[in-house]
Write a structure and sequence with these properties.
Arc Repressor Mutant, subunit A; three-stranded antiparallel sheet; mainly alpha
Length: 153
C-alpha cells in the first residue's frame, strides 16, 4: 500500500520510474537480477554496443538504481537494492496478468475502447499488441503461449 507522499517523494519516485522507462535499461536491469555483471556482458545480453551500455549503466548508477565495484581491470555493476528486483517482478506479474486477462476477454468477443488499449499498451511491444488486438479464440490461443515464453511464465 502506498503511503501519502509529499511532492518531493513523488518527484523522486517519478524520476526513478522514468529511469527504468527505457527498454535497454529494463534489459540491463533484468540481466543484473542474477548478480553482478561486467559492462561487456551486459552489452551482449542487452543487444547494444559497449559504449551504449556504458552510457545507460552510468545513468542508472548516477540515479541510485545500480552500484559498481572495480575488481582489477573490470568494473562490475549490480542492483543497488534487492527490493528494486522485487518491485520489478511485481510490476511484471501485474502487467502479464493484465495482458492475459485482456486476451481471454478478446477471445470471447469483448471489445475494448481504442483509447484504453493505447493507454495500457507500451508502444512497439508486439507481444502486448498481439494480445490486445486478439479478436478470436484462435488468435488468443496463439498469443498466450508467446506471452508465456516472452515473460517466462
Amino acid at each position: 500500500m502506498l503511503v501519502r507522499m509529499n511532492a518531493e517523494l513523488c518527484e523522486l519516485m517519478g524520476g526513478f520510474f522514468s529511469l527504468l522507462a527505457h527498454p535497454t535499461r529494463i534489459r540491463i536491469f533484468c540481466a543484473l537480477q542474477h548478480g553482478p555483471q561486467t559492462v561487456s556482458a551486459l552489452a551482449e545480453k542487452s543487444h547494444v554496443s559497449l559504449p551504449n551500455a556504458s552510457q545507460h549503466l552510468r545513468v542508472m548508477q548516477k540515479n541510485g538504481a545500480l552500484t559498481k565495484e572495480k575488481r582489477g581491470q573490470q568494473v562490475f555493476y549490480q542492483i543497488a537494492d534487492p527490493r528494486f528486483v522485487q518491485a520489478a517482478e511485481m510490476i511484471r506479474d501485474a502487467l502479464v496478468e493484465n495482458v492475459q486477462c485482456r486476451a481471454r476477454r478478446a477471445s470471447h468477443g469483448t471489445t475494448y475502447r481504442k483509447a484504453l488499449r493505447q493507454k495500457i499498451r507500451p508502444p512497439g511491444h508486439t507481444m502486448l499488441a498481439l494480445a490486445t488486438n486478439a479478436t478470436d479464440k484462435q488468435n488468443s490461443d496463439s498469443v498466450l503461449p508467446l506471452l508465456k515464453k516472452e515473460f517466462l511464465l
